Amino acid sequence: MRIASYNINGVKARLPRLLEWLEETRPTVACLQEVKSQHEGFPAAEFEKIGYRAIWHGQKGFNGVAILADGIEPVEAQRTLPGDPGDEHARYIEADVRGVRIACIYLPNGNPVPGPKFDYKLAWMRRLRARMRELWAMEIPVAVVGDFNVIPEDKDVWSPRAMAPDALMQPESRDAYARLLGDGWTDAIDTLNPRGGVWTFWDYQAGAWQRDHGFRIDHLLLSPELADRMVAAGVDKAYRGREKASDHTPVWVDIAD
Predict the structure, then answer these.
(1) Which residues contact 13 (CB under 8 A, 6 or more apart)?
(2) Domain 2-255, CATH 3.60.10.10 — does that match?
(3) Which residues form the Endonuclease/exonuclease/phosphatase domain (predicted)?
(4) Was 7 annotated as part of a binding site?
(5) Strand duo 142-147 + 218-222: pairing
(6) What are the average pLDDT values for consecutive 10-residue runs of the chain, which has 257 residues?
(7) CA-CA distances (angstroms) from residue 139 to 29, 52, 120, 244, 256?
(8) Is 46 annotated as a binding-site member?
(9) Is residue 247 annotated as involved in ligand binding?
(10) Is residue 67 within 8 Å of 29, Cβ to Cβ?
(11) Which pLDDT score, from 0 to 100, does residue 183 have?
(12) 3 state DSSP class of 214
């Protein structure tokens, strides 16, 4: 079972690239972020043509998350992150797929720092931790995956100095992420690449892709019940270099049946 995550940066704008990736790599589950589509405009029919069923939480122009499953309907378990009834951002969705609970997240960016957007980011991370503790208590296989908008350590960025002012690198952001791991969740990519140097995002500006000036913000966190079954994890880096690609690249983890 392959569980993948891909910040697609506009599902309609990148649809040809997304369909290529799905057909060429065939993940069992594909979690998407930044679909940037209203609920009614999500191209579910295009995915059905190649065998994928989908659930999604859309929002016009920005945000938006979706879970696609190969040959099976994802069974929705939760829509929106609990803890703030006034939060209308489409950043969270949960579903059961083949005995695994999948949570797809698009965590707030938080820039500029300081300010209300950064405060919202930290509050969202506290809510996420609370939900992940609820999932942990269920003692079931769980994967919480997506764009976390956190660079966990200096080894996860091409230049810590260049990114130091960014919300992705602030001590508070890193501490909130570290607390998730401290609760017992396994960072799949980091576990299998302990030296770092693995990027999942390259900005469109300043030739970042061509110069390999990237960083790791797309993560796959596994509960103990799932981490024990992990056999491989990686990044589909080549897809970042294709025409009209997202600024992110897919990440994935393989789970033994």
Answers:
(1) 36, 244
(2) yes
(3) 4-248
(4) yes
(5) antiparallel
(6) 98 97 98 95 97 96 96 97 96 98 98 98 98 97 98 98 98 98 98 97 96 98 97 98 97 96
(7) 21, 28, 29, 41, 18
(8) no
(9) yes
(10) yes
(11) 98
(12) strand
Alpha helices in 138-170 (DSSP H): 160-163
121-158 pLDDT per residue, tens: 999 999 999 999 999 999 999 999 999 999 999 999 99
* Cα–Cα nearest to 147, from 9, 54, 27: 9
**Type of residue at 146:** G
Cβ neighbours around 114 below 10 Å, total: 11
The pTM assigned to this predicted structure is 0.97
User: Is there a contact between 97 and 156 (Cβ–Cβ < 8 Å)?
Assistant: no
Classify residue 155 by burial, with Cβ atoms within 10 Å: 0-12, 13-18, 19+.
Answer: middle
Is 156 annotated for ligand binding?
A: no
Q: E-strand spans in the chain?
A: 2-7, 29-33, 52-57, 65-70, 75-79, 92-97, 100-106, 142-147, 186-187, 201-202, 214-215, 218-222, 230-235, 251-255
Q: Do 15 and 52 form a contact (C-beta atoms < 8 A)?
A: no
Domain residues of the chain, as ranges? 2-255
CA separation for the pair 177, 171 (Å, rounded): 10
CA distances from 241 to 23, 212, 245 (A): 17, 11, 7
SS3 breakdown of the chain: % helix, strand, coil, rounded to 5? 30, 30, 40
For the annotated catalytic residues, the residue numbers are: 106, 147, 248
Give the pair of three-digit tokens for residue 143: 């994967």
Q: Residue 57 and residue 39: Cα distance in Å, rounded?
A: 6
Ligand-binding site membership of 147 (annotated): yes
